[in-house]
Amino acid sequence: MIARSQLALLFGLVVVFAGCGRADEFRSKYLADPKVSAEIKEAIRKRVVIVGMCPFEVFAAAGMPVGIYEVTPDPKKWRFDIAPPVIIDAQCEKPDESVIWLTFKNKTQFGTADPVVFHVRFEKGRSVLITRTHKITPAGA
């Protein structure tokens, strides 16, 4: 059973955030923003997620999230019944103690021929960990 303070949802953020067109909007916005560091702009151009990006900068780099995601809201700021996208939306401008895991899939993050699924963990509104999902092959396959 999931604790009330932890909202784990099994539907994709693609539906919630209105699809890949938004990634292009985020890309244009953050590449034009003089407050965004040169390092983050370069990562966005290469479409690679790096540590230190806020969720929308990650969307600009990786595309929109897919699949499972998890949001553990900051209990000092959010009630338990706040929708996870609201909490995610707040992290770039007003980061808090929420912990967020988002799932992505693309070819650019690891420079692969086929898309690879990976997860990004956010703390205090910034990416702190990027982990590649490894395909498990059954024994004898």
Give a description of the structure:
- The protein has helices spanning 13-16, 21-32, 38-46, 55-62, 84-90; strands at 7-9, 69-72, 99-106, 116-123, 126-132.
- By secondary structure, it is an alpha+beta fold.
- The chain has one domain.
- It has a five-stranded antiparallel beta sheet, with helices on one face.
- Strand 4 (116-123) and strand 5 form a beta hairpin.
- Helix 2 (21-32) crosses helix 4 and helix 3 (38-46) runs parallel beside helix 4.
- It is globular.
- 27% of the residues are buried.
- Residues 1-18 have low confidence and may be disordered.
Name some characteristics of this structure.
single chain, 141 residues, alpha+beta, globular, disordered N terminus
Q: In a few lines, what is going on in this structure?
A:
This protein has 5 helices and 5 strands. It has helices spanning 13-16, 21-32, 38-46, 55-62, 84-90; strands at residues 7-9, 69-72, 99-106, 116-123, 126-132.
Secondary structure blueprint with pairings:
Layout: E1 7-9, H1 13-16, H2 21-32, H3 38-46, H4 55-62, E2 69-72, H5 84-90, E3 99-106, E4 116-123, E5 126-132
Helix pairs in contact: 2-4, 3-4
